Amino acid sequence: MTESELDLDVDLEEDFEPEDLEGPSPVATLGDPVLVVDDLNIVYRVFGGKAKQVAGGANVKEGTAPRRSFLRRLVSSTSQHVGAVSEVHAVRGISFVARHGESIGIVGINGSGKSTLLRAITGLIPPHSGGVYVAGDPALLGVNAALMPQLTGEKNIWIGGLALGLTPKQVEERFDDVVEFADIGDFVYLPMKTYSSGMSARLRFAISSAATPDILMIDEALATGDAAFKARSKARIDEVRKNAGTIFLVSHSTSTIEAMCTRVLWVHQGQLVMDGPTGEVLEHYRTFVRAHRQARSSARAGGVGPRARSKQRSKKSD
Ligand SMILES: Nc1ncnc2c1ncn2[C@@H]1O[C@H](COP(=O)(O)OP(=O)(O)OP(=O)(O)O)[C@@H](O)[C@H]1O
């Protein structure tokens, strides 16, 4: 990895004290394969924007739209998609097999493709090429899960529960549990837009984990909440892992990954850099992040940060 590749945005939060998530490290009891990701490529198409190198170094291909005459550009300036079509190659040829009983962490710096990979596995984003083969029903549990802020917590529990495949009877049976787990009390009868961000994150987590999916995908859900909620979430996840099978967890907190996962996938610039036991992969990842931070701070000290570089560029163009 070169110095310039290291000049990316890093957000490695060690936000958990290990005692937040006490308990033995998870041990995988491996069963049958439940998920096969085969040479997966995901490409986002961005319309009307100017292509640029994004954080995390995702590969952006500029100007994939054909060059147009001045007249055409003038005419099309009233249309919705103005300018070039750019492509962001967010996931690049990732392959792996996940088995029943595994708890798999996905790490990588900002913009490396973790969430995209997770969304592709749940079928929210179609592959550009390659494939995702799933035995069972993956459910994505994330703080960004799409609930409706203008509706009450109660209505969102119903919508979310039904969307996760629960029957009306099951939603009714689990309703009180969800409210209790989220610890929102009578706020459940108020619109979600009146909630604090912690309250809505807790409710999202509680709704998503009310079902017991075959594959549970968690995107940063544990990054919110106090120590007690984190401990409750860990217990709930352990339960899901025991009953259901496979868990994927995206988190910037390596200590959370350590406490929850038996295996780690490290994604960088959309590619799978390492796939192996938690301790082994995290050791390399932490070393990478430290080197990365050092490279960034020396670059800043030497005045070659992004702002300084842009000044240098504008001077050159003067
Ligand atoms: N809807 C989208 N349209 C265009 N580009 C996108 C879209 N979503 C993500 N990207 C780009 O794809 C790349 C991977 O993004 P992704 O969100 O998967 O990374 P990540 O590792 O989850 O990042 P973070 O840790 O910051 O959440 C980034 O360059 C991002 O800018």
TrEMBL record:
Chain intervals for the UniProt region annotation (Disordered): 293-318
Q: A GO CC term?
A: membrane
Amino acid composition bias (Basic residues), ranges on this chain: 308-318
Q: Which InterPro entries match?
A: AAA+_ATPase (IPR003593), ABC_transporter-like_ATP-bd (IPR003439), ABC_transporter-like_CS (IPR017871), ABC_transpr_TagH-like (IPR015860), Bact_Polysacc_Export_ATP-bd (IPR050683), P-loop_NTPase (IPR027417)
Q: Name one Pfam family in it.
A: ABC_tran
- Keyword terms, alphabetized: ATP-binding, Nucleotide-binding, Transport
The family this protein is said to belong to: Belongs to the ABC transporter superfamily.
Q: Any idea what this protein is called? A: ABC transporter ATP-binding protein
**Lineage per the UniProt record:** Bacteria, Bacillati, Actinomycetota, Actinomycetes, Micrococcales
